[in-house]
Write a structure and sequence with these properties.
The complex is a heterotrimer of chains A (745), B (337) and C (170). By secondary structure, chain A is of the alpha+beta class. Chain A is built from 16 helices and 31 strands. A seven-stranded mixed β-sheet of chain A has the order 3-5-1-11-8-9-10. In chain A, strands 14-13-12-7-31 form a five-stranded mixed β-sheet, with helices on both faces. In chain A, strands 17-18-26-27-30 form a five-stranded mixed β-sheet, sandwiched between helices. With 337 residues, chain B is of the alpha+beta class. In chain B, the strands form three sheets. Chain B has a five-stranded antiparallel β-sheet. In chain B, strands 1-3-2 form a three-stranded parallel β-sheet, with helices on one face. In chain B, strands 9-10-11 form a three-stranded antiparallel β-sheet, sandwiched between helices. In chain B, a hairpin with a 2-residue loop joins strand 10 and strand 11. The longest helix of chain B is centred in the last third of the chain and has 17 residues. In chain C, strands 2-1-5-3-4 form a five-stranded mixed β-sheet, with helices on both faces. The longest helix of chain C has 14 residues. Classes of the chains: A alpha+beta (745), B alpha+beta (337), C alpha+beta (170). At the B-C interface, helix 2 and helix 6 of B face strand 4, helix 3 and helix 4 of C.
Amino acid sequence: MSIKPLIGQPISRLEGHLKVTGAAKYAGEYNVSDLLYGYVVNSTITKGKIISMNTDEVKKIPGIVEIFTHENRPSLAWFDMQYSDMDAPPGSPFRPLHKPDIKYNGQPIALIVAETFELARYAASILKAEYQTEAFKTDLEANLGEGRKPQPGLATMLKPPPPKDKGDIDLALSAAAFTSKGTFTHGTEHHNPLELFATTTVYEGKGKVTIYDKTQGTVNCQLYVGNVFGLHFKDVRVISPYVGGGFGSGLRPQYQLFLSVMVALELKRNVRVTLDRSQMFTFGHRPPTIQKTKFGSDINGKITALYHEATAETSLYEDYTETVVNWAPMIYPSPNSKMEYNLVPLDVFTPIDMRAPGGSTGLHAIESTIDDLAHQAKIDPIQFRLLNYAERDESVNRPFSSKELKQCFIQGAEKFGWDKRNPEPRSMRNGNKLVGYGMATGAWESMILPARAEAILTTEGKLIVKSAVTDIGTGTLTVMSQIAADELGLPLDQVTFEYGDSKMPFAPIQGGSFTVSTVGSAIKAAGKALRKKLLKIAQHIPHSAFKGLEIEDVVFQDGYIRLKLDPSKEIAFTALIHANKGKVIRTKNFNVPNLLKLKKHSRAAHSAAFVEVEVDEELGVINVTRAVTAVAAGKIINPKTARSQILGGMVWSISKALREETISDHNFGKYMNQNLGEYHIPVHADIHDLDVIFVEENDEIVNELGSKGIGEIGLVGMPPAIANAIFHATGKRINEFPIHFDKLL
Amino acid sequence: MNDFNFYKSQGISDAVEKIADQPDAKFIAGGTNLIDLLKYNLMTVSTLVDVNSIKEDTLSETDGAVLLNAFATNANTAYHPIIEERYPLLSKAILAGASAQIRNMASNGGNLLQKTRCYYYYDANTPCNKREPGSGCSAINGYNRNLAILGTSDHCIAVFPSDMCVALAALNATVCVTGPDGDRKIPFSEFHRLPGNTPHIDNNLLTAELITGIELPSKGFEKNYSYLKLRDRNSYAFALISVATAMELENNQITEIRIALGGVAAKPWRVQKAEDFLVGKTPTKENFALAAELIVEGAKGFEFNAFKIELAKRAIIRNCLMALNPASQLPGAQPSA
Amino acid sequence: MRTESIQPPPEAKNSETVTLHINGEARTLSVKPWVTLLDALRENLDLTGTKKGCDHGQCGACTVICDGKRILSCLSLAVMKDGAEITTIEGVAPTGDLHPLQKAFIEHDAFQCGYCTPGQICSAIGMFKEGKAHTEAEVKELMSGNLCRCGANTNIINAIMEVKNGGNYE
């Protein structure tokens, strides 16, 4: 190992130069020669059938190359399984242009292919369909009674069903000294990454395609395209190194990918299909969810009862689920608990994971109910949580692999100045503004999946590591380079990480905060294997000082293998290449997590979020003036990019609690604010003082890196902390997100 | 967006002639709203007549009055020393609208011609009387958080979205136009129209008339003024409620006051009765509260925007108090103490 | 819904020849009036550093500097910019070096996915030229036309403030 490990260093993003100069190319920016432009036409009704379209008329316009609809879509794969993907929920995946049937408003019904972008866009505006309409249902609240249990399926592996009931919840609630009940309403949200979804497909001839796609999984898309279009996987290459934000929207292959590849194969031409901003609202969203909680405690504030129920929207053709109600018994031990989770299928596109899916929904309900219980019991919210601190995960009766949540409370509270809080609501002011302090706990399960990685020592003695994984802006390139560099004891400039390409070794989709755990472990394994191989080569050199030694007896430093006990005995990596007849030295490893070992522990990152709000007493206007998030997520590979991940989650928290919402009009069964002018994500003027603390946490269980993942945890605890702060400021508990300021009038 | 011809005009009369000649031809200056509408296919044009070549100074002064060039950008106007010094209310209101980039493009004339931001107007697949007369109004029983509470009709509850115009209304500006039949002037209060039975007609401009200037009377209320904008985020969003207050005080008595509301109607909203009531009164919270009641008299809330009635009243009171201390105003016309 | 009469295919409109002075270089191209400056940059001139995030003037990703002012290229027609001096992200720094803002953005980790970044940087350069942002609150307000979905807001504002306070942004 190098003397000063790179893991733990705040390295600036390695692709930074390319991003600040505009040189980084995103999926819709590969201006290959002879490019055709595709523009999608979407259904204007919510449910029914297409009767006819004026395709022939529109096709007459000079420059229109082809129009694809359900009538001339090529005959493709038959079975649902072939349309499935790594993130597909149980059910029957959506097939673009498959049939005249309309399943949701905004469904793609045609693709115009033209010689220019402007012409394709124009033709799309005049292509009209005649429909036979049917009655539809899109309103979750109006159809709550139709909730039912989700179908089990493969997805259940990462999204476990609610834990079993414990004790007698009704009895416990009726006997409780304090009880708190709430109904929590969350509407639809859309990911709205700033980059529009786009696919540029290069037709390479003979059924071979190179695809530049906006995705969170190159291999996922490669398999999908291969299966759907009946191509050899080796003939499908999906490239996606720079992704202009994903937040979950790129976890499944989206319809522009299908359409672009279809055109390329049918017309044997290069083609780009870019969605417009309104079309970004037509392929998956965070589902509206309505939750009910009933918690009870004894006179001393010890929790005795936890009831948490959630009903969420899904589509009529897939059962999308989230882990919404499993958290309370994991965070708070209680002898009595009951959790329920139901789905209402409606005439919408299937929801898709959106940053901190489930957790950011469920924890709002849990942590606001806890806040209310603490308020009733007249116990400080932190003390209340310490009083009910879970040293073990009682919900499944396992120890935690590590849990430094207590330190999050202590360090976060200190940095925030929690001790200055007057517990009485409406007691703190700043001029004509009411000031409120609120806090909440966050938790996110640490997952790991199998992945492959390749490590190559080049002829110059440099290291190349490879994985198909994307970098959606989380810092993957940088942290993987750090992990790889440390494995071989090399400085960062001697290491290249090649990624974002399905040609590289297998990586699963990038989401769920499991990329560092998954791909990082694979890279670590590949690096370890390479070290062994290098030592072996060193031992075969005549008069080798390394004969008979184990890997533990040597160090890898600055391009040399050295004897631990006598560093003067060394051999250069370049000498090993020479010994290998001038050829590169490579290892490829498949890292499969040890499930048996992992399953003995509950593994989760934790956080404590602290928020100060100011509420204009007369006008209701709310500002989050300060916030601190303290995170315990195991080893932090890169504190700089990790901090940005948490800051991003904190901005999303402000957005979720106070800003963003997709507005539905259920008379029409459609979304009404499909643009960034009316879908309000925070602007700079909304964001004030944000701070992040990483609490030291050692974890030897989760993975070899001891790193838990941080993509979601910043967005789990802070939304309820904002709601709790607003309660503290105003005495009003608003359980519907986003909290509109006029609710405080 | 449909295919169209482009014509760079040589001057005002050339531009007006070109438009008068062709159906579906339109002037384009900044284009910040027009190109947006063309991209959403809410308008089609045969020819765009570019009036940007009509370059003059941002404004000119005569006899104390100021004539804003209609083709000057919002930013150049807001940051012009004469506007900053003599008409700071106008400056603040302009700077509360859109974003810095858009203000660098958008013209003063174009600002008056913005289309409503009603969701249903923008969705060509829903009925909307403004977009398609006689098709019905989806907003009345739909999502109407951002829509009108005053001056509505059974046919339309759209809101006119400008901030600049709220200040222009308070300042008693006059709109100067040139058409095929020559020049004329339109008092600001008569420029925009309430929906009535003809919600598709936003204003009283006649066919082929071009806005060439906006006259500001000499009185700029530079001592006591304030613009307040309440919206769903702190910047870069349209107003739910905005208020422009221009006030003149003598010995702690109001000698003149103008209060214009934005975000509540199809035009900036002023109520003479309320302003008259305040003249001769002391500038107290109580007096402003009484005036606020008069201003929102007759307001009608809908399912999602009924809160605006109470919010408008509170915003009026706050903004009038803020006008007593204009230096306290915050960037983005956010509420201050 | 209502049925619409189908418009006849459009008569072919003439392309116009325009010269754009982009990053100090005169680029002459033939474009139809319906081509926006943004699409001309990205599709005709392969200057893809300028980003398309919404195409409706609602995100700021397409910000460029035109005749010294920051504008939105998505709401500009290329034909309207004939003769204009345009600076895109590819041209904000002298060859081979980075603009102080570009350096500060890297140092402050003022981006994640990087898609809003060119627009943020061009916008901040335009803001400096305007000279109207003095306090941090004013900077935040005057930068609010540039959205960042990754939530890098505090790092972006810190990077801009550092360069502003350093005074080295010409």
